[in-house]
Amino acid sequence: MVKSPVEGSTVVMVKLERPVTLSDFVHPVCLPEEGASLNLSYCNTLGWTRNRELLKRIELKASSMQSCENISIPTVNSFCSEPAYPTIGCNVSIIHLTH
After folding, report:
1. 4-to-15, 56, 82 alpha-carbon distances in Å
2. Confidence of residue 18 (pLDDT cuts 50, 70, 90)
3. How far apart are the C-alpha atoms of 29 and 14, rounded to whole Å?
């Protein structure tokens, strides 16, 4: 595991003992080429429920950084987001990007 100089960012590489069988649930992830422009209008993020029993996924849409000014201090590695669909609970969050 490599700790990034950017707070909250961690990179992990794993060497497997044997090849993985690809399926609908196991497949490689395509990463963008260096310098490629990214469409950050929608994204997904994962998080644990309060009791840490379930891992949940939520689709987010990008918001203006001004809507997060009172919530968190933005960095060059973050963008402001809100749920893509109506939800109960928090409606704005800062997502920290990792590279």
Report:
1. 20, 25, 25
2. very high
3. 14
